[in-house]
Amino acid sequence: MLVSLQRKWNFTPKSDTVAITNYQNMLFNRHSIISTLVLYIEIDSVQIEYDPKLITFKQLLEVFWTSHDSRQVFGQGPDVGNQYRSIVFTNGTEESRLASVSKEREQTRSKSGIVTTQIQQLGTFYPAEPDHQKFELKRHPFLLQLMGNLPEEELEKSSLAAKLNGYAAELCPPRLQKRIHPKINDILRKGWPILREV
C-alpha cells in the first residue's frame, strides 16, 4: 500500500505526568485534568504510513497544502476550534526542515494571507473513539452495509471503507467519485455486487 491514512486524536501532555496508557484512560481521567493542572491538547489529525521508496515526504507535503486552507485561523471550513488548526507533525529534524521549507514556499505562493500552519515534533497519538472513525460512512447505513459485518477494528483499517467514507462526505476526488458512483447506482438497480474493484 502506498499510503495509509487513519484518523486519530493527538493528545499531548504539557507537563511531566505519569503517561496515560490509552485513550480510554484519558477519557476516564479527564475530570482530574483541572485538579492536577495538566493541559492536554486535542487535535483532529490523520496518521500517514508511507513507503518513502514510493512517495516522498515532500510529495505528501504538496498534498497537504492543496487539501486545505493553510491561511485559515482557528479551524478549517465550518469546523471551528483549536483542534482543527493547520499543523504538520514531523518525525525528526529532516522532516522538520522539509516542512519548514515547504511552508515558506506555500507562503510565497499565497497572495491573500499569512500561512498559519504550525510545524511540531510528533507526539503520542491515540486512536479516536470508534464512533469518530469512518463517521460519514456510519451516517449512511446503506453504504455501511456494503462493507458487510466487519468488526470495528477491520472497518477502521479498510481502504474501501476510507473511500466510501470520503464518498459519503462528498469529499471524494473526482476520479474516485467517477469510479464509485456508477457502482453504487448499479447496486441500487441490480442488487448486491461487491465493490472490490474500487
From TrEMBL:
<comment type="similarity">
    <text>Belongs to the MsrA Met sulfoxide reductase family.</text>
</comment>
<dbReference type="InterPro" id="IPR002569">
    <property type="entry name" value="Met_Sox_Rdtase_MsrA_dom"/>
</dbReference>
<dbReference type="GO" id="GO:0008113">
    <property type="term" value="F:peptide-methionine (S)-S-oxide reductase activity"/>
</dbReference>
<feature type="domain" description="Peptide methionine sulphoxide reductase MsrA">
    <location>
        <begin position="44"/>
        <end position="139"/>
    </location>
</feature>
<protein>
    <recommendedName>
        <fullName>peptide-methionine (S)-S-oxide reductase</fullName>
        <ecNumber>1.8.4.11</ecNumber>
    </recommendedName>
</protein>
<dbReference type="Pfam" id="PF01625">
    <property type="entry name" value="PMSR"/>
</dbReference>
<dbReference type="InterPro" id="IPR036509">
    <property type="entry name" value="Met_Sox_Rdtase_MsrA_sf"/>
</dbReference>
<keyword id="KW-0560">Oxidoreductase</keyword>
